[in-house]
């Protein structure tokens, strides 16, 4: 690839490896914090994610205040009693993994604090995981770009790429089903789709489970992506 590559994604909680693969292959990664929060369904990853447990996997969910059509950056955390439960689940299921001693103390610090807004924990966690995976792409918040609030979908993505003088937009695989590629072509922006192949590695429990939070890879396989 030549030119400046931009990728864009909502700030998920403890994102999966594909999230960081997208960052790895971008010059600039834009955290899309100025779009509507999704609470349920296949896109609801901003306040929850999964970790490996003996029985398969477990949801870790941050309780949030239900507000109609709120933007992600404005989503408030509903209570301050979830941190201990999340950390206990992480500790119980990962404390005997190969890289627990190396990374657990740093991760534990995030669960010793109170947070008012969901982004207050999600964005620092993303930055911490980027550091552990050795990723140096530039990180920018969409809410800092002074974008037209009426823009949606493809038009919003194009405006972000143009604002950052990007030549290439790196989309997730699912973008093939909803992006208007002709609009990108009209703005001389090349669209490429992520081809992420989830690695298989030894987990603490038998029968491999993929697409968990990236901390599963971090604790079991270390920080080399």
Please outline the helices and strands:
Layout: E1 5-9, H1 17-24, E2 28-31, E3 48-53, E4 56-61, H2 83-94, H3 100-108, H4 119-132, E5 138-141, H5 153-163, E6 168-171, H6 181-186, E7 190-193, H7 214-221
Parallel strand pairs: 1-2, 1-6, 2-5, 6-7
Antiparallel strand pairs: 3-4
Give an overview of the whole structure.
The protein has helices at residues 17-24, 83-94, 100-108, 119-132, 153-163, 181-186, 214-221, and strands at 5-9, 28-31, 48-53, 56-61, 138-141, 168-171, 190-193. A 5-stranded parallel beta sheet has the order 5-2-1-6-7, with helices on both faces. Strands 3-4 form a two-stranded antiparallel ribbon. The chain has one domain (5-221). It is built from 7 helices and 7 strands. The chain is an alpha/beta fold. The two termini are 19 Å apart.
Q: Estimate the strand proportion.
A: 5-15%
The chain-level mean pLDDT equals 95
First-last Cα distance = 19 Å
In which range does the helix fraction lie? 25-40%
Uncertain spans: none
Counted up, domains total 1
- The number of helical segments is 7
Order of helices and strands: EHEEEHHHEHEHEH
- Rounded to an integer in angstroms, the radius of gyration calculated over CA atoms is 18 Å
List how many beta strands DSSP finds.
7
**Structural class given helices, strands, pairing?**
alpha/beta
**Principal-axes shape call:** globular
- Strand neighbour order, sheet with most strands: 5-2-1-6-7
Largest sheet: 5 strands, parallel
């Amino acid at each position: 690839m030549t030119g400046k590559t931009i990728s864009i994604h909502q700030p998920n909680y403890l994102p999966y490896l594909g999230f960081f693969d997208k960052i790895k292959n971008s010059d600039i990664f834009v955290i899309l914090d100025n779009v509507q929060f999704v609470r349920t369904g296949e896109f609801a990853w901003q306040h929850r994610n999964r970790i490996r447990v003996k029985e398969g996997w477990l949801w870790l969910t941050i309780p949030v205040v239900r507000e109609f059509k709120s933007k992600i950056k404005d989503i408030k955390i509903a209570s301050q009693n979830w941190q201990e439960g999340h950390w206990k689940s992480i500790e119980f299921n990962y404390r005997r993994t190969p890289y627990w001693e190396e990374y657990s103390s740093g991760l534990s610090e995030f669960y010793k604090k109170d947070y008012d807004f969901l982004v207050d924990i999600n964005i620092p966690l993303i930055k911490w995981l980027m550091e552990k995976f050795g990723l140096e792409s530039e990180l920018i918040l969409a809410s800092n770009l002074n974008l037209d609030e009426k823009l949606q979908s493809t038009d919003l993505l194009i405006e972000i790429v143009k604002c950052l003088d990007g030549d290439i937009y790196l989309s997730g695989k699912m973008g093939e089903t909803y992006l208007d590629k002709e609009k990108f072509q009209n703005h001389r922006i090349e669209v490429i789709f992520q081809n992420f192949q989830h690695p298989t590695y030894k987990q603490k429990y038998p029968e491999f489970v993929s697409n968990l939070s990236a901390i599963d890879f971090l604790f079991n396989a270390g920080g080399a992506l």
